[in-house]
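Next comes the chain:
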Amino acid sequence: MLAVARDELPRDAALPGGLAYEQKADGYRALLFAGPGRAHLQSRNGSDLTPAFPDLAAAARALPGVTVLDGECVVASGGRLDFSALQSRARRRGAGARTAAVEHPAHLVVFDILELAGRSLLSEPYHSRRDTLVSLFERGVLAGRFSLCPATTDRDTALAWLAPAWGAVGIEGVL
């Protein structure tokens, strides 16, 4: 779950079947285990982030069926992603976390779906999981606190995402 910085994108033929590129947002990588009445937000190192993000937990509890999402927890402020605000939110619990959720709402930028309606999707190819994820956004199942991570198979688009203007709004790079 930890991205490794590189100076350039891999060549087009680096993987059989081609490459897909996604924006890397400035946030916390997290898994969300969700479903009716349940929510658990887990950091990449296994920490329970749920108490710090009651807004994300509430959105997760409203999802139909058991769902596991992989994404980046972010907070936006002033037209950009605000990592300092995210860190501040992550330290709060209880009433402080609820107040922070109103002042600086969090979103989960989702780039993969690992389970849907209790069915594991781990053996499905990326393009199939991505199609499922896009469909959930198109049908409004995932909305509100959830955002679909921009993705492309076009190398030129991915290269454009490396421009300094994207960095200025909180996009750290490309995965």
The chain has a mean pLDDT of 93. The helical segments are 54-61, 83-90, 94-103, 126-138, 155-160, 164-168. The first strand starts at residue 21 and ends at 25.
